[in-house]
Design a protein that fits this description.
Layout (H helix, E strand, L loop, with lengths): L6 H16 L30 E4 L6 E2 L3 E7 L14 E8 L5 E4 L1 E4 L4 E7 L4 E11 L1 H11 L7 E6 L6 E7 L11 E3 L10 E3 L9 E6 L1 H9 L4 H4 L9 E2 L7 E4 L22 E4 L2 E4 L9 H8 L3 E6 L1 H13 L3 E4 L10 E6 L4 E7 L10 E2 L6 H6 L7 E6 L9 H21 L4 E5 L11 H7 L1 H15 L6 E3 L2 H5 L11 H15 L3
Parallel strand pairs: 2-15, 18-21, 18-23, 23-24, 24-25
Antiparallel strand pairs: 1-3, 3-7, 4-5, 4-8, 5-16, 6-7, 8-14, 8-15, 9-10, 9-13, 10-12, 11-12, 13-22, 16-17, 19-20, 20-21
Helix pairs in contact: 8-10
């Protein structure tokens, strides 16, 4: 049974809207990170998608390309009672189907009282549909916050080996010091100047320096993480509270052609103009609202990167850039892992024809993986930046988020600050070096398993993305490539390793800053 908002409620929301929009900072497409109420609430008080309604303000007016379409979400619980606090996590899209397939993300404003404003910039002409998904109610967000801040809930196992004697010892390892193990029984393998921490139980025979390879201890991690959630709380990570689309409008909204000539986008210079959202998908091409992002052909990529060296540092989501460049340029590979059963964490390739070198290296632990990670192939990104010469023909690309999303927020924050300081050391000794930092993206959640949400929810990924924006967003020497909106409204299935058109559009963003014309 539905519970539509009354005219009085809509009027109240409209008044709140005007005040909110006047002071709005256009920088996100999802609610700000104000912590929701910490008090435990009965599940019956959680936001219930079937009772939560979308109201379009000024539904009957004529909309034209370039206008802003505004909707209001009125959150209600299972019994139809209005929510009175903040923190629900929504995913908002505006889409068109058929011959003009297009989509854009909506900007969500949390008013702190159970109501939310969603604004869509109307980029194209035609019929558009509002699609808003409740990803997590605020009650689930509270659980995610609490679990995230518990240190060492992910357990890793590392092998300590001596090649000469053949002795190998397996030990549990953690991303921060383990208070249950006496200090003298721990190996501190941290790197303080890179803000990197890694601790292992000390082997009986071998020295700490004998650490060889590491992987996730899935069984121990699963038991620890699931033990942090109460039985009633697990219901919040199932239907009907999880990733449910709200009931939308029965008919589309018609967008007419604007009578005003749309100005040409400025070239991508690194300056960050304010925008309601960052762009839209037109078919399989991303159209940026910030600057003129070109669509690079194979020949364009080759010419743009000719005589340049590209260093890519981060996780497997940014390794996709290396893989695509290897295919497009193409590159001849000349570096990889030593063990066939280990994932590739260190790769290099070059093109003698175009004088292009591209190097990829994975960030240091923690890394969530079933495969072995060779310890000596990993390096802290800050340390690696200190070894790069730099210069006008050097490009630095940094993208790390996925493996830090489950960790206490201070870990990625401190790691990013160490990287930021290393970037400026590099620029001081080698002015003209181009530096790009990419944000996080949405991802898949396998079979709806509770563990995947507790360790990899899109809410967790979005918190890392906001940290990246905050730390690098005002840095005039760094270009932030914000790819969050791009994946929120992508026409493809969510995946940590997105479809090739998404990767190509991400690369187009970077290349348009290097070669704007």
């Amino acid at each position: 049974m539905g519970f539509p908002p009354t005219k009085a409620v809509v009027g109240m929301i409209a008044a709140v809207l005007l005040m909110s929009i006047m002071s709005l900072r256009f920088h996100s497409t999802l609610p700000p990170s104000r912590p929701p109420h910490k008090r435990n609430r009965p599940i019956e008080e959680a936001t219930y998608p079937n009772n939560t309604k979308i109201v379009v303000l000024n539904r009957e007016r004529v909309y034209r390309q370039g206008d802003v379409l505004t909707a209001v979400i009125v959150a209600r619980d299972m019994n139809g009672r209005p929510k009175t606090h903040d923190g629900d996590f929504f995913r908002a899209r505006l889409v068109s189907y058929g011959s003009r397939e297009a989509s854009t993300a909506g900007h969500v404003i949390d008013h702190g009282n159970g109501t939310y404003t969603v604004q869509f910039l109307l980029y194209w002409v035609g019929d558009v549909w509002i699609r808003i998904q409740l990803v997590h109610p605020s009650e689930a967000v509270t659980v995610l916050q609490r679990v995230r801040e518990v240190p060492n809930r992910r357990v890793f196992q590392c092998a300590f080996s001596d090649k000469q004697t053949g002795v190998t010892e397996m030990r549990s390892c953690f991303s921060s010091t383990n208070p249950s193990v006496p200090g003298h029984q721990q190996c501190d393998l941290s790197k303080r100047d890179a803000n990197g921490t890694w601790f292992c139980q000390r082997p009986d025979i071998l020295p700490c320096a004998a650490i060889f390879k590491c992987q996730t201890d899935v069984a121990k991690t699963t038991n620890l993480v699931r033990g942090l959630v109460l039985d009633d709380e697990t219901k919040l990570f199932k239907k009907p509270y999880l990733e449910v689309e709200l009931k939308g409008l029965p008919t589309p909204i018609r967008v007419l052609k604007s009578g005003v000539i749309t100005p040409r986008q400025p070239p991508c210079t690194g300056k960050r103009p304010q925008a309601l959202t960052h762009g839209y998908w037109s078919g399989d091409v991303w159209k940026s609202s910030l600057c003129n992002v070109r669509v690079f052909t194979k020949k364009d990529v080759q010419k743009c990167l000719a005589h340049k060296t590209v260093y890519i540092r981060g996780d497997s989501t940014i390794r996709q850039w290396y893989e695509r460049l290897t295919e497009v340029i193409p590159l001849r590979a000349y570096g990889s892992s030593r063990l066939p059963q280990a994932q590739v964490f260190l790769e290099s390739g070059n093109s003698s024809r175009w004088d292009i070198d591209v190097h990829f290296r994975f960030h240091n632990l923690p890394i969530q993986t079933h495969s072995w990670v060779l310890f000596d192939e990993l390096g802290y990104t800050a340390d690696q930046l200190d070894t790069i010469q730099g210069g006008l023909n050097t490009i630095i690309v940094i993208g790390l988020w996925a493996h830090f999303a489950p960790e206490p927020l201070q870990m990625i924050r401190s790691r990013l600050y160490a990287i930021k300081y290393a970037i400026h050391r590099l620029l001081n000794r080698s002015p003209g070096t181009r530096v790009f930092v990419r944000t996080g993206t949405t991802r898949e959640h396998e079979n709806g398993e509770l563990l995947y949400y507790l360790l990899g929810s899109d809410w967790l990924a979005y918190q890392v993305t906001k940290e990246i924006r905050q730390i690098f967003g005002t840095d005039e020497d760094v270009v932030v490539l914000d790819t969050w909106d791009m994946t929120v409204c992508q026409p493809y299935s969510d995946h940590a390793h997105p479809a090739q058109p998404v990767v190509a559009s991400q690369l187009n963003m970077m290349l348009s800053h290097i070669c704007p014309q």
